[in-house]
Amino acid sequence: MPKLLPLIEHVVKKPIWDCRMCGQCVLHSTGMTCPMTCPKTLRNGPCGGVRPDGNCEVVPDMPCVWVKAHDRSLNMPLLPQKWRDEFNHLRPPVNNSLQGDSSWINLINGKDRETPDGWDPGHDH
Amino acid sequence: MAKTEKLPMDGIPAMTINAFEALCSSRERAIVTAEFRSFDGGDLADIEKALAEVAPYVDALNITDNPAAHAHASNTTMAAAVKTLGGNPIMQVVCRDKNRLAIQADLVGVTMFGVENFCALTGDDVTAGDEKEARRVFDLDGPQLIAVMTGISHGNYLSGRKLKSEPHMFIGAVENPTAPPLEHRVERALKKVEAGAKFIQLQICYQPELLENFMAGCVANGVAQRAAIMPTVVFTKSARPLTFMDASVPGISVPQAVIDRVANSEDQAEESYQLVKEQVIHALSLSGVAGIHLTDFRHDGSLQRLTRELKIGPHEQSQQSQESTNAYSR
Predict the structure, then answer these.
(1) Measuring CA to CA, how many Å separate B283 from each of A40, A122, B30, B228, B232?
(2) A35-47 b/e (C-beta count within 10 Å ≥ 16 → b)
(3) Per-residue pLDDT at A4
(4) How far is CA B53 from the centre of its chain?
(5) Cα→Cα distances A25→A20, A76, A89, Å
(6) Largest Cα–Cα distance of chain A, in whole Å?
(7) Is B188 on the interface with A (CB under 8 A)?
(8) How do residues A49-62 score in pLDDT, each as one tens digit?
(9) ipTM of this predicted complex?
(10) Which of B31, B151, B255, B259 has the fewest CB within 10 Å, making it most exposed?
């Protein structure tokens, strides 16, 4: 089962979201747009290189992942308000040891929300 | 707040240590920062000479980190050198080239040389540079890097392991007021402030209305009050670099009317200078702007001329106070 589930997740999420199996899914907070499809794998918003037409600095023919995410987080129908509100939250660095895992399992056991002991952003601000 | 410390070496006018941080907090006059040139060899004397030319006119110097994805002498070595030579470096750190281990090692290392000011950037992609086949890293992103810097300033690595001390670090970031999604840029600036950024240097902006909108947003959401915002202006000598930036530099677009203005003038160098001067005056007139960041592609004394003509920066202030002939430190 532990090996079957990542396969099922990949089959479901790859065609829809181009899922990269980071194992710590944040789609709900990014307008159902996978930030790992950003060529720079940015988890916290668009870089400064977005072209005037809204396309990607790295792949000029591709719309910026974060421009899409921003638009969808505001305008996508049926997206719960709580998820929209999370758009500007600071997402921690990727846990690269979870790559290839099922994010569904990591959601249930809480592994996708574990952060290093030194990750304590904004505690004096 | 501002400690004064004399130069360890002769020849360079002393800059007040931490004057930049003090000004970001006090806002008693417009802050002037500039991008220090990059090096591809030579020796410390070359750095000292370049520093002496610009240091008296600015409050701090940005030390770039492989700008536009081109390798140069490293940000860490240059920041340590500038600090040792009596300058006040702002060490830029990009996310493109190193993972979290290497970045933290760099940060802790340079704090041991007394480097205090840091600026976190995502960084141009490797495809912007001359080694397009390089692996891009981006193990951290810009906001995460700010938070990691803040953690180190509190005496711990990201892992939680303790440092021997809590290094004094003054942390900042960048933002681009001209890149889509425009309405999100002020939210992103706020995110960076909440992660620990105390100053924000802006990407070069040739559209005054976009800068005005961004600044109005930053005043409205409190970013301008919590962080010292410095728009960037770039010294060019002709229309050609404007055309180049518009076509080739990620995140910068130059309106055709601006390019034409310079291209059709009788003296392109002077017209370029006047354009820069107008941009600086406009930027400093905006509510919430704390200072200006200057990038110099000319290296012909224009930067020095501008600070004199507009009476901005530490040089001008010390000239007015006339405390001594070499009183660049306050």
Answers:
(1) 31, 29, 11, 13, 9
(2) bbbbbbbbbbbbb
(3) 84
(4) 17
(5) 10, 19, 14
(6) 47
(7) yes
(8) 999 999 999 999 99
(9) 0.92
(10) B255
Contact A49 B124 (CB under 8 A): yes
User: Angle at the Cα of B156 (from B152 to B160), degrees rounded to 5?
Assistant: 135
Interface of A with B (CB under 8 A): 39-54, 57-58, 64, 66-67, 70-71, 88, 90-94, 96, 116-122, 124-125
The token pair at B273 is 């200078």
Residue in B closest to A68 by C-alpha: B181
Q: Which amino acid is at B242?
A: L
* Alpha carbon distances (Å) from B250 to A35, A51, B67, B72, B245: 20, 7, 12, 19, 8
Dist. CA B96–CA B173, nearest whole Å = 15
How far is residue B177's CA from residue B309's CA, in Å, rounded to a whole number?
Answer: 27
Q: Could you write out the DSSP letters of every residue in B47-77?
A: HHHHHHHHGGG-SEEEE-SSGGG---S-HHH
Cα atoms found within 13 Å of the Cα of residue B173, Cβ hemisphere only: 33
Establish if B181 touches chain A: CB-CB under 8 angstroms: yes
Short-list B89, B94, B87, B90, CA closest to B69: B94
Which residue in the set B181, B191, B250 is minimally distant from A49, CB to CB?
B250
How far, in Å, CA of A92 to CA of A94, rounded? 6
The answer, for B227 touching chain A at a CB cutoff of 8 Å, is no
- Confidence label for B321 from pLDDT (cuts 50, 70 and 90): low
Nearest to B143 among A39, A44, A71 (CB): A44
For residues B114 and B108, what is the distance between their CA atoms, to the nearest angstrom? 10
- Identify the band that residue B251 occupies on the pLDDT scale cut at 50, 70 and 90: confident
**For B115-152, how does the pLDDT look when each residue is reduced to its tens digit (9 = 90+)?**
999 999 999 999 999 999 999 999 999 999 999 999 99
Largest CA distance in chain B: 62
Strand duo B228-235 + B291-296: pairing: parallel
Taking the C-alpha atoms of residue B230 and residue A84, their distance in angstroms, rounded to an integer, is 31
Rounded Cα distance between A68 and A81, Å, is: 18
Beta-carbon separation of B122 and A117 below 8 A: no
- The label of the residue with tokens 């660095």 reads A93
DSSP state of A31: T
Token pair recorded at residue A30: 């990014």
pTM, whole model, 2 decimals?
Answer: 0.91
Interface check for B99 against chain A (CB to CB < 8 A): the answer is no
The SS3 assignment for B176 reads coil
